[in-house]
């Protein structure tokens, strides 16, 4: 039982995505196609980066948020 649990956790850890490695542009593109819990994780990462975004990135971020909220 412990072995199966360990193996399951190991496989899940390999499938986990570390969004902090991605560029802001990649995150914004991924946000358009994200589903479920990935949306929350991507939004959290973008929110952390918001103060450091260029004006163009910030505009794209705001547009992505608007599309996301309009689509819900």
> Which range best describes the helical content: under 10%, 10-25%, 25-40%, 40-55%, 55-70% or over 70%?
over 70%
Work out the helix count. 4
Ranges where pLDDT stays below 50 over 5 or more residues in a row are none
The topology string of helices and strands comes to: HHHH
CA(first)-CA(last) distance: 41 Å
Count of the separate structural domains = 1
Structural class category: mainly alpha
Q: Characterize the biggest β-sheet.
A: none
Q: Per DSSP, what share of the residues sits in E-state strands of 2 or more residues?
A: under 5%
Q: What is the CA-atom radius of gyration, in angstroms? A: 15 Å
The total strand number stands at 0
Q: If you average the pLDDT, what whole number results? A: 81
Principal-axis shape equals elongated
């Amino acid at each position: 039982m412990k072995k199966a649990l360990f193996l399951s956790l190991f496989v899940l850890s390999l499938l986990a995505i570390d969004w902090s490695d991605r560029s802001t542009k990649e995150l914004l593109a991924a946000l358009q196609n994200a589903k479920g819990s990935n949306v929350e994780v991507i939004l959290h990462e973008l929110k952390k980066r918001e103060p450091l975004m260029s004006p163009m990135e910030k505009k794209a971020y705001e547009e992505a948020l608007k599309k996301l909220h309009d689509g819900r």
